[in-house]
């Protein structure tokens, strides 16, 4: 019961000023009707400058992503990790992303293509469309004067050559070189570089020097020449595999003349190499270091290095260490490293867990396609996804992925144009559900217009920077 004084005061106030408070009856409603009270909201996008990926599922807005435009503002590093089960659209995303990046004038892309069918890699159609001949690394073809990459190419620094030789040997042996073996390799490499000047030194020269070391190398360390020879025996046997084993022909001669490192797209076709053999990480190491010293230059170009089946890199401690150094070029020379992996558990629980964690930390962009529930939870824990994103990953349909761009998490539907479709989907991919072209796919004219606008905006921002 209200206080009499309060009642009298309210009555007097109402007499002087009129009724100041309206008494409303309670309203009964349903959740369907009350949803208008809480209007839908969506997190802000990544801006409107860059490459069109598709459409945000919840807001319907276009989703635009470009690590070079976002670097320094929203991204601490331009590197990108793509995860997901086969058949959910990873390959389609990679290919359309590269095709759309190449519309910009200052872009250049290298692809390590580890998958293929009918004797060619998955990127063969795109290479043909752009007038590019893939660099096909094939032991059989190499014996008939096919493509060769020389680990002792003079374009690679002496320090880089020695680091590459050590990595090849450590990958093949499955453990690090001890001090004695490392010393034998170092003196053999130094002697070969000092004495062979009329041609490119090759791996055969290293093997020969390990088998027959110079007396001076033993005298310098006050050891017997037979000891130096014994220390280098295992190293010589490993290198001999590249010269006369299952990898012969690809690395035991001068680098093939005519490889166009200025082409907008460079495709290394590794589809003829057994993906489960020790050859694959060795190839990754050689190609990675060779590119580091011959391709990456301070010429203001934005470069993308895309690696299929990247677990061969991240799962090997020795190769991962080389690629960690390569990734650091992203900040200084404009390199974006894109790693495509099926399962994160393939690498985070492997022999290179420490190196894998370092590479994952450098990848500020993570795109996750559908995974099984347990795999999604493990992925969420490792890369720090919010709970709601982890819960929806197992429910994602082909072509839709969770994007985490340095903490900006969105669900994105990837869209493909009619022109891109025959280049993106191989015969195998055409049998997947992801091959269906969405009804709301943008036209090629609309895509080009939007990207021209983005390119002009980027040029204006660069011209007026500072």
From TrEMBL:
<keyword id="KW-0067">ATP-binding</keyword>
<dbReference type="InterPro" id="IPR051162">
    <property type="entry name" value="T4SS_component"/>
</dbReference>
<dbReference type="GO" id="GO:0005524">
    <property type="term" value="F:ATP binding"/>
</dbReference>
<keyword id="KW-0547">Nucleotide-binding</keyword>
<dbReference type="Pfam" id="PF12846">
    <property type="entry name" value="AAA_10"/>
</dbReference>
<dbReference type="InterPro" id="IPR027417">
    <property type="entry name" value="P-loop_NTPase"/>
</dbReference>
<protein>
    <submittedName>
        <fullName>ATP-binding protein</fullName>
    </submittedName>
</protein>
């Amino acid at each position: 019961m209200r206080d009499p004084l309060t009642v009298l005061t309210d009555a007097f106030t109402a007499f002087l000023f009129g009724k100041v408070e309206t008494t409303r009856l309670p309203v009964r409603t349903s959740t369907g009707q009350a949803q208008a009270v809480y209007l839908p909201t969506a997190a802000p996008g990544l801006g409107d400058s860059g490459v069109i990926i598709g459409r945000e599922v919840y807001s319907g807005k276009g989703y635009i992503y470009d690590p070079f435009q976002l670097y320094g503002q929203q991204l601490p590093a331009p590197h990108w990790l793509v995860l997901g089960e086969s058949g959910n659209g990873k390959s389609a995303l990679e290919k359309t992303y590269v095709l759309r990046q190449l519309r910009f004038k200052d872009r250049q892309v290298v692809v390590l293509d580890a998958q293929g069918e009918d004797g060619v890699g998955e990127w063969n159609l795109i290479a043909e469309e752009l007038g590019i001949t893939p660099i096909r690394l094939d032991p059989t073809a190499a014996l008939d004067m096919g493509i060769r990459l020389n680990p002792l190419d003079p374009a690679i620094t002496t320090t880089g050559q020695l680091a590459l030789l050590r990595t090849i040997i450590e990958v093949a042996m499955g453990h690090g070189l001890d001090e004695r073996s490392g010393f034998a390799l170092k003196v053999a490499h130094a002697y070969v570089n000092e004495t062979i000047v009329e041609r490119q030194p090759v791996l055969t020269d290293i093997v020969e020097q390990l088998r027959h070391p110079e007396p001076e190398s033993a005298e310098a360390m006050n050891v017997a020449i037979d000891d130096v020879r014994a220390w280098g025996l295992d190293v010589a046997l490993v290198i001999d595999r590249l010269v006369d084993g299952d990898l012969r022909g690809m690395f035991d001669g001068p680098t093939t003349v005519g490889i166009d490192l200025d082409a907008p797209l460079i495709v290394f076709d590794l589809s003829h190499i057994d993906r489960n053999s020790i050859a694959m990480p060795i190839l990754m190491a050689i190609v990675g270091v060779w590119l580091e010293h011959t391709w990456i230059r301070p010429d203001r170009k934005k470069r993308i290095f895309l690696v299929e089946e990247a677990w061969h890199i991240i799962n090997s401690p020795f190769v991962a260490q080389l690629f960690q150094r390569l990734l650091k070029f992203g900040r200084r020379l404009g390199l974006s490293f894109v790693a495509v992996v099926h399962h994160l558990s393939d690498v985070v629980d492997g022999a290179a867990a420490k190196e894998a964690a370092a590479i994952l930390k450098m990848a500020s962009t993570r795109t996750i396609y559908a995974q099984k529930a347990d795999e999604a939870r493990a992925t969420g824990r490792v890369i720090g996804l919010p709970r709601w994103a982890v819960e929806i990953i197992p429910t994602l349909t082909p072509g839709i992925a969770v994007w985490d761009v340095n903490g900006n998490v969105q669900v994105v539907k990837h869209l493909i144009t009619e022109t891109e479709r025959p280049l993106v989907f191989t015969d195998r991919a055409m049998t997947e559900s992801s091959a269906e072209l969405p009804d709301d796919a943008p036209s090629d004219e609309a895509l080009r217009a939007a990207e021209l606008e983005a390119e002009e905006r980027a040029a204006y921002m660069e011209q007026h920077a500072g």
